[in-house]
Design a protein that fits this description.
Number of helices: 11
Number of domains: 1
Number of strands: 0
Helix content: 55-70%
Mean pLDDT: 89
Structural class: mainly alpha
Radius of gyration: 18 Å
Low-confidence stretches: none
């Protein structure tokens, strides 16, 4: 991770660690289970994903120069920044929703996504805890239209800052109510029920930022103020970073119970 990325993570830490201490949804130690592995994901895994994302972006921008008329990219990049950012959020979260849903419903993909769901004590660091294949494929699906359409660098940069902060928020161990905005903006309550290891939570709440996508496509789980009893998966996820990276490549005798049930969605 570069210096700028480290600074952003430290800013998130300065914000979320105190808030998780003061407004915790459930009791949790600072030096909790899996913390060391999560830090490896932040420092090492994030670098891999970032390099892959920049390489992908450069390729897509090159393709866009050939495939997409300049009249379209000029119109898109000429819009007000705030409108571009709003459009990027909508476009990317539509891609995130369907990529995320595919990672749940296709057993071969679930092996990769199970690494993220293997988190048993959820907090803001969970935003970084994803298998590199999972993270790279999801970003490729979500961001390809953004780079093809020629959104400005400024709007994409602002989107990334919003995305980092919001992704950390929805994974955080913070009790916060969004009220009527819960249908529009994903909050911790919405996403922690995606991570809950309870049958009623399986294959629900796929959106990253916009819950109304789950409402539209029939996968919204309205839980009120109820708190999940536990997080994690029944899959035998290894406790180390490299064990988790190679875990999807290992042959298992028995498929994940959650993947087996995904056809019910």
């Amino acid at each position: 991770m570069d210096i700028f990325g480290i600074k952003l993570v430290l800013i998130c830490a300065l914000i979320f660690i105190p808030f998780e201490y003061l407004f915790a949804e459930r009791p949790q130690k600072i030096f909790r289970k899996g913390l060391a592995v999560d830090l490896v994901y932040v420092l090492f895994n994030s670098f891999i994903v970032k390099v892959a994302t920049f390489t992908m972006a450069a390729s897509i921008i090159g393709a866009a120069a050939i495939l997409v008329p300049q009249s379209i990219t000029r119109v898109v990049s000429g819009q007000p920044i705030w409108l571009q950012v709003a459009e990027i959020i909508l476009i990317t979260d539509f891609g995130v929703y369907w990529a995320h849903r595919a990672f749940h419903q296709i057993p071969a993909l679930w092996k990769f996504h199970a690494i993220h769901h293997g988190i048993e004590e959820l907090d803001w660091l969970g935003a970084f805890h994803s298998h590199p294949v999972d993270a790279i494929v999801t970003k490729a699906i979500a961001l390809t239209p953004v780079y093809l359409l020629g959104f400005s660098e400024a709007s994409i940069g602002i989107f990334w800052l919003i995305h980092l902060g919001h992704t950390s928020l929805v994974h955080s161990n913070v009790r916060i109510a969004f009220g009527p905005l819960k249908w529009l903006i994903a909050g911790p309550q919405f996403h922690r029920w995606h991570h809950a290891n309870e049958r009623e939570a399986y294959d629900k709440n796929f959106a990253g930022q916009l819950p109304f996508l789950d409402v539209m496509f029939g996968t919204y789980n309205a839980t009120g103020d109820k708190v999940p009893e536990k997080y994690g998966v029944d899959d035998p996820i290894p406790p180390t970073y490299f064990g988790q990276v190679f875990y999807p490549l290992l042959t298992r005798r028995k498929p994940s119970s959650r993947a087996a049930l995904s056809g019910e969605v």
